[in-house]
Amino acid sequence: MKNKESKIKIGRNDPCPCGSGIKYKKCCMKKVSTKKDMDSYYLKKYGIRIKTPEEIDGIRKAGALVMETHKEVEKILRPGITTDDINTLVHEFTLDHGATPAPLNYRGFPKSVCVSLNEVVCHGIPGNTVIKDGDIVNVDITSILNGFYADANYTYFSGEPSREARILVENCKESLKKGMEAVKPGATTGDIGYSIQRYAESLGCSVVREFVGHGVGLDFHEPPQILHFGRRGTGVPLIENMTFTIEPMLNFGKKEVDILDDGWTAVTRDGSLSAQFEQTVVVTKDGYESLTPFEL
Ligand code: MF3
Ligand code: CO
Ligand code: CO
Q1: Quick check: CB of 157 below 6 Å from ligand 1?
Q2: Contact criterion met (CB below 8 Å) for 94 and 65
Q3: Does 119 sit in the ligand 1 pocket, CB within 6 Å?
Q4: Which of 8-17, 137-146, 179-188, 245-254 has the lowest average pLDDT?
Q5: What CA–CA distance (Å, rounded) separates 244 from 238?
Q6: 72-121 pLDDT tens trace
Q7: Which of 86, 90, 91, 109 gets mutated to test ligand 1 (max ligand atoms within 8 A of its CB)?
Q8: C-alpha angle with apex 90: 84 to 70, nearest 5 degrees?
Q9: Which end of the chain, N or C, is less packed with Cβ atoms under 10 Å?
Q10: 151 lines ligand 1 (CB under 6 A)
Q11: Are the C-beta atoms of residues 158 and 77 closer than 8 Å to each other?
């Protein structure tokens, strides 16, 4: 999702967002005692809808379908197919399972899945492009099942990847893992971004800033934004039953991106390779559960 704000900072020690002028931890953070209070506080302060167990179950079922769809994509992915072949498969498989592909017609997006090759960072539009041996193929699937949304992407190899491609993709996958491991009640959205950025940059990769993770479940893109970079303790404190994606995009070269004339396709400015991995997670009592699980 497009990064709408470059700065969100509501740390424990920051001024309370209610405008009292005193520290957040001494003000509104203390005013909520029951879980119900907390949920309405999050809606009012951040626009975040904390999910019920029933809603989480609905998102989990949508997530299972997303991951089944990924398994089908993996089966057909090889040099020689077109990005449209992936679109056709995702579109039909989704409909056959009683669901709707969320990307189709979303803000004018013309296809049912995003397929982003090599230097394409995200939001690649499927078409007649033939996938070649050695390409890296980011497939981003979002399904709506019974009104619930789940969102996950995976960067696949077509044939034999270059050494560079292998390193980038491995680093990106591991950076998602590092981000997910930061998720637990009491941590903040900024802790997730910090973990990802620290890991990725220590390996010489750069983190894309223009696109961020997002709340998800009852809608495609809900608050909060989940930055894949930033400072510890900033952003929104995580509480149980928040659902959101983490979806770092790592570039082998510099972090800057350009948007092509189609208004969607994001590419690295320096032409270097870009990879992405995404899961939808729910904050649990002592950590997180992935609602679109795959091995990291
Ligand atoms: N699935 C993307 C995300 O992770 C959003 C794609 S929007 C689309 O947020 F319109 F390009 F599909
Ligand atoms: Co997403
Ligand atoms: Co996605």
Answers
A1: no
A2: yes
A3: no
A4: 8-17
A5: 10
A6: 999 999 999 999 999 999 999 999 999 999 999 999 999 999 999 999 99
A7: 109
A8: 115
A9: C
A10: yes
A11: yes
